[in-house]
Amino acid sequence: MNMALARIWLGGILAIWAAVFFIMAVYFDKPLNPFDSGAAAFPMLISASLFITAVWMMLQEFRRLPNSLPIKAKRFGANIFSAVLIILYAFSMPYAGYYLSTLVFVPAFLVASNERRWKWIILITAILLLFNYLSFDRLLGVSLPKFGSAFVE
Amino acid sequence: MLEGLVQGFLLILAMDKLLAMLAGTIVGYFIGAMPGLTPSIGIALMVPFTFGMDPVVSMVMLVSLYMSAEYGGGITAILLNAPGTAAAAATAFDGYPMAKKGQAGKALTISILASGFGALMSTILLIITAVPLANFAIAFGPSEYFALALFGLSLVSSLGGKSLLRGFIAMIVGLLAVTIGLDPINGSFRYVFHLNLMEGIPFLPALIGLFALSEVFYMLEDVKEKPVEPEKIVGIGVELSFLKRHWFNFVRSSLIGYIIGVIPGAGTTIASLVSYNEAKRGSKSPETFGSGNPEGIIGSEAANKSAVSGALAPMLALGVPGSASAAILIGALTIQGIQPGSLLFAKNPEIPYSIFATLLFSVPFMVAIGLAGLRLWMKVTDIPKSLLATCVTVICVIGAYASSNDLYPVWVMIITGILGYIMRKVHIPMAPIVLALVLGFMMEVNFRRAYIQSGGDMSMFLKHPITLILVVLALVTVIWPVIRDMKTKKAATKKAAAIEV
Asked: What are phi and psi of B58, to 5 degrees?
């Protein structure tokens, strides 16, 4: 995708977001104090500004479209896969617990990052688990998600 | 006062206090370098250890931790583009590009020297001006805070990168994100699609996502590339001539940091952003800011360390915390049976003077540990990107989680990380979003409070001198670059026309 087209898409998404937030703000609670500008004033002002600037950017980019260069994005597929892995990692934590999730995530992420040396994969996984256990769990007393904590809730 | 200061020095020059200072400095480095863990979290975590301690020892440890944690945030900002503290975000703007060019050692040295200078100068300022400046800061009402936030946001014109429009869009996106959550005045729901959103978008996880996680995706693009060979460090890493050339930047940044730090609630992040902007405006090569100009690091680091001492001024003189960390320090003092405020200097003079002495004495500690660890921290740049990206991701996740012992900040971090990557790809700058996330809430709340207090009279913004000055400064800051750009374009057009003729 070229830069101008990407910005047009982004501008469109931002304009829709701004429009939705503006309409929602209309229905916010009215102020109790007659001198309070109210819960809606600031969000309405900001969302209207975002709508205007986003449309302005789209118009600017339409003019640039013919001469626009493509966006540089190497290993795009691998990056999407990595993002999915991070989402799955966060999603699995309340079910599998922090340590089990990390034990699965780190090797998977390393492989997705083109790391093939299995000794390194084992070493990095062990170091990260140990470091997080000692520093966050033991030293700082952070209560990390436990196995099955989502079911307990 | 001099007598009190000598007493303070004599008090802290005992083995237990020096050990407490060393422990505080080392723990502070660690806390600061961990994205998600703020200096205030670090102090809060250490407070239970101080229960049985002598009040002076506990203050020595906590104050050293506070100062070095602010420095620790700069290390990861420079090496990984992952600011350990919010205030270090401005350090990443130029520190990380320098590290990418193989100048990590130089960037780290400049960062530690600027930190040391800022800490030292602000401590001297604190000793001299604590009481009068604290009284000035207490005069800040809602209209002044609103004007301060407005002035902060006006910096978008210079922090927004090449396109003013894209800078504004980034800022407005940040401002709109800030409106999510409970209304700050009457508590009604605004865009609360899920219960977690009641507390709004947490700032620190959003910052970790925008900077660190988006950087992970960039690292993953280049996993096959070899890391840049870092330049060898000669001496302490920078020449004396460099320091001499930029002495004014050191002094100005420290002054800005101290003054902003004194204002309760303004904080180190605003101080570093404002100072960074001033460093850019005062530079002979402002166009190189954002691509590895060491002046930017001086601006950010000197100011955020200076703001630490600044935040202690209202705490010591009035018992009013200048920052979240100062509020926890007040709590720690109260636990010890000591009440900070106007009577502190009379009733417990050993506390303020030992804090002054600690601040002065902890600077060499901080600088020495920083310079000694330089070569070790630089090793981070030798780590292959695949391993580094994995480590950064795991630390980001646990850091975001640890910020409030909840998975909600982790989701915020992931979403902002993906958004940050997309925005960086289409050259939408990150700095204005940081500005908006820091200042948006402050601007709205104080505007509404001021408006209510004045009974709906908008002219109150013109009646308060500090407010008026800040509003005018904000307008000039936004309008001036636009006029300058128009002039430059006009001159270029004229030149082109002349060449054609």
From this structure: -65, -40
ipTM of the complex: 0.93
* DSSP label of B284: S
Cβ atoms of B17 and B11 within 8 Å: the answer is yes
Phi then psi for B403, rounded to 5 degrees? -65, -25
Alpha helices in A27-74 (DSSP H): 41-64
Say what the pLDDT of residue B1 is: 67
- CB-based contact A78:A112 (threshold 8 Å): yes
Q: Do the Cβ atoms of B425 and A71 come within 8 Å?
A: yes
Query: CA-nearest residue of chain A to B36?
Result: A136
Residues A19, A84: one domain?
A: no
Tokens of B156: 């978008």
Residues A51 and A89 in one domain: no
SS3 A70: strand
pTM: predicted TM-score of the whole model, two decimal places: 0.80
Q: Which two tokens stand for residue B222?
A: 């280049």
**Residue at which a domain ends, from A49, A67, A85:** A67
Phi, psi torsion values for B181, nearest 5 degrees: 120, -165
Provide the β-strand partners of residue B181: B190
Q: What is the mean pLDDT of residues A40-54?
A: 96
Name every chain A residue with its beta carbon within 8 A of the beta carbon of B391: 124, 128
Number of alpha carbons in the 13 Å side-chain half-sphere of residue A30: 1
Residues A101 and A56 in one domain: no
User: A140 and A94: one domain?
Assistant: yes
Give the closest residue to B50 by CA, choosing from B15, B16, B84, B82.
Answer: B16
Of the three residues A67, A88, A120, the one that is the final residue of a domain is A67
Find chain A residues with C-beta within 8 A of B427's C-beta.
3
Q: Assess B198–A contact: CB distance below 8 Å, yes or no.
A: no
24-53 in chain A: CB under 8 A from chain B: 24-25, 28-29, 31-37, 39, 42-43, 46-47, 49-50, 53
* Helix-then-strand count for chain B, H and E: 24, 2
Q: Which of A28, A141, A144 sits opposite B190 (nearest CB)?
A: A28
What count of residues does chain A have?
153
Are B386 and A82 inside 8 Å of each other by CB? no
Residues A111 and A85 in one domain: yes
What is the tens place of the pLDDT at every residue in A106-129? 999 999 988 888 999 999 999 999
Whole domain around residue A117: which residue ranges? 76-149
Q: Are residues A48 and A94 in the same domain?
A: no
pLDDT at B419 over 90: yes
Check the CA dihedral B431-B437-B438-B439 and report its sign: positive
Between B172, B183, B410, which is nearest A53 by CB? B172
User: Which residue, chain included where needed, has tokens 């950064």?
Assistant: B392
Model pLDDT for residues B109-150, shown as the tens digit of each residue: 999 999 999 999 999 998 888 767 766 777 778 888 888 888
Q: Which two tokens stand for residue B131?
A: 């009481």
Query: Is there a single domain that holds both residue A100 and residue A126?
Result: yes
Residue A36 shares a structural domain with residue A94: no
> Residues B276-309, buried b or exposed e (16+ Cβ, 10 A)?
bbbbbeebeebebbbebbbbbbbbbbbbbbbbbb
Q: B385: which chain A residues are within 8 Å (Cβ-Cβ)?
A: 113
Share of chain B above pLDDT 70, in %: 96
Query: Between the ranges B132-136, B186-190, B412-416, where is the mean pLDDT highest?
Result: B412-416
- Number of domains composing chain A: 2
Q: How far is CA B44 from the centre of its chain?
A: 19
Q: What is the mean pLDDT of residues B382-390?
A: 84
Nearest neighbour of A90 by CB, restricted to B384, B385, B410: B410
What per-residue confidence (pLDDT) applies to B319?
72
